[in-house]
Amino acid sequence: MTMALATRTASPSALRTLWGSTVGKKAVMATTGVLMLLYLVAHMLGNLKVFFGPDDLNGYAAWLRTLGQPVLHHEWFLWTARSVLLAAVVLHGVCAYQLSRRDIAARPTGYAHKRHRASYATRTMRWGGVILGLFIVWHILDLTTLTVNPRAQQGHPYENLVASFSTWYGGGVYIVAMLALCLHVHHGFWSAAQTLGANSARRDRALKITATVLAAALTIGFLSVPVAVMTGLVR
Amino acid sequence: MRLTLRVWRQTGPGEPGAMTEYQVSGIVPEMSFLEMLDVLNEELILRGEDPVAFDHDCREGICGACGMVINGQAHGPERTTTCQLHMREFGDGDTIDVEPWRAAAFPVVKDLVVDRSAFDRIIGAGGYITAPTGSAPDAHAVPVPKEAAETAFENAECIGCGACVAACPNGSAMLFTSAKVVHLNTLPQGAPERESRVLGMVGAMDAEGFGGCTNAGECATACPKGIPLPSIAAMNREYLRAARRAPR
Ligand code: HEM
Ligand code: FES
């Protein structure tokens, strides 16, 4: 019995233990958050190809579709990545919703003496997350399905993003979302380390600095593209 | 000193309550916050009114019984227990708001007194070690590495006052529970129940209706004993390890 327990690895009941507890559910949130973060770093670096001209960016976008060939079929890599990201964002959002409901219920009566609790980035995680979720939908409609980007053409990402960022709302929505991302990552990266048990008194400072650098690098990297279009640097 | 107090008055569990205003005078800066409340209560008794109920015992900062939210801060403006908070922290003529710990898991019993037995039930779910009782063991019979002893001691300082829950925007008991888990799981004496302890205590904590941790850090700022925020990370680490090893 003891042997059996000791040698058993992750089983469905371990997953149920995790999903059923605040600590476990938060770990799901942290894992999916970190996964999205890794993706965002790659995405941001890829976007910078815009500064090397249309051929560079469009070639890179085409390569993303042939990546993994001939082992993988055309676009299989792309669709795998999309499925993982979709699962991650849904899980992240569901955990955020369920945990937030619990957190609010745990303080049914508030204090009469009001005072801000925690930093701005920490307090805005929920609404900032909602902004990011809405942005993800807009972003896909804008530059993937091209539904809300009337002058766009499938297969021409460079021209499409220039078309989107040339409108005030295209650039505006993007800029607001990236500022929300900055705050979310600023608290989220360090928070995830804490949630997954990777933090300690010794590492605390280094993790906080990394969170700030990561949030700033992502935001500046992502924002450079619409700003370049709006200032006419990229046309 | 003359002060205006706005104190939460509630006659019993589940009863409606309200912030009620009182004037107190004759307060000197050397008084503790509880002594100031004693002065108020003496006046209330003389006037034939019901005195303000509040918890207290040692009045020297070690039992964890006293606890109230003063001007929105658990234990008030100084990082100490309410009994060790002195009136010199306030100015003549100040208005001070005094409220009970607010959490679904800490129902108000009366006025500023809350029922903190939820903490006892968390302890009952694993906050102990299984050791043969009888004569005291020899000192150094079980060697403890210095670093482990220091970590254990730092966390053992928790007096279970509940300020972490009161300060947390989510009414979470993660700092309390982590202090207990880290204290015992760090020591060789706590090793036999390492997994069942953290699984059991986190389970009890959730069952009591405390909120989850959003790493806001308010708990560690309010803690009169300086339990550090990384203790929560250490408990998370223990929990994730235990969930992998000993699925229930
Ligand atoms: C680009 C997409 C996103 C990334 C990279 C991201 C990243 C993260 C990370 C790393 C954390 C820390 C996890 C932890 O401490 O356990 C986190 C927390 C959180 N995220 Fe996201 N997230 C994203 C989108 C969203 C969305 C769409 C929502 C809303 C549905 C959301 C809501 C939250 C909330 C409420 C928290 C918890 C905040 C707290 O503990 O105080 N996030 N996120
Ligand atoms: S009365 Fe014991 S800690 Fe304050």
Helical percentage of chain B: 25-40%
Work out the count of structural domains of chain A: 1
| Rg for CA atoms of chain B | 20 Å
Radius of gyration of chain A: 21 Å
Query: What's the number of extended β-strand segments of chain A?
Result: 0
Structural class of chain A comes to mainly alpha
SSE string of chain A: HHHHHHHHHH
The main sheet of chain B comes to: 5 strands, mixed
The total of helices of chain B stands at 8
Q: Catalogue the ligands.
A: protoporphyrin IX containing FE, FE2/S2 (inorganic) cluster
Looking at this protein, list some descriptive labels:
A: 235 residues; mainly alpha; 3 helical TM bundles of succinate and fumarate reductases; 10 helices; 0% strand; B: 248 residues; alpha+beta; Ubiquitin-like (UB roll); Fumarate Reductase Iron-sulfur Protein, Chain B, domain 2; 2 domains; five-stranded mixed beta sheet; 8 helices; 12% strand
Quick description:
The complex is a heterodimer of chains A (235) and B (248). Chain A has 235 residues and is an all-alpha fold.
Explain what this protein looks like in three dimensions.
The complex is a heterodimer of chains A (235) and B (248). Chain A has 235 residues and is an all-alpha fold. Chain A has a single domain (21-105, 120-230), classed as 3 helical TM bundles of succinate and fumarate reductases (Up-down Bundle), CATH 1.20.1300.10. Chain A has helices spanning 2-7, 12-19, 22-47, 54-66, 76-105, 120-123, 125-143, 157-165, 168-195, 204-230. The longest helix of chain A is centred in the middle third of the chain and has 30 residues, at 76-105. Chain B folds into two domains: 3-109, Ubiquitin-like (UB roll) (Roll), CATH 3.10.20.30; 116-245, Alpha-helical ferredoxin (Fumarate Reductase Iron-sulfur Protein, Chain B, domain 2, Orthogonal Bundle). In chain B, the strands form two sheets. Chain B has a five-stranded mixed beta sheet. Chain B has a two-stranded antiparallel sheet with strand order 6-7. The N and C termini of chain B lie far apart (59 Å). The model of chain B has no long low-confidence stretch (mean pLDDT 95). Chains A and B meet through helix 2, helix 3, helix 5 and helix 9 of A and helix 6 and helix 8 of B. Residues 56-59, 61-66, 81-83 of chain B line the site of FE2/S2 (inorganic) cluster.
